[in-house]
Amino acid sequence: MPDALILGIESSCDETGAAVVRSGQEILSNVVASQIPTHRPYGGVVPELASREHLRAIVPVVRQALAEAEQTYESIDAIAVTQGPGLAGSLLVGISFAKALAFGLEKPLIAVNHLEGHIHAVLLERQLSADAGLQFPVLALVVSGGHTHLYLARTQGTLWTYENIGHTRDDAAGEAFDKVAKLLGLGYPGGPIIDRLAAHGDPGAVKFQSSQIKHRDRRDRGRAASAGDHPRFDFSYSGIKTAVLRYVETHTLQTAIEARRQALKGIVKPTLEDYLRLSDKQTLDLVASFQRAMVEDLVEKTLAAAAEYDVQTLFVSGGVAANRELRMTFQREAEMQGIPVFFPSRSLSTDNAAMIAAAAFPKFLAGEFEAMDFSAEAGMALR
Ligand code: KG4
Ligand code: ZN
Question: What's the CA gap between 63 and 69, in Å, rounded?
Answer without folding.
Answer: 10
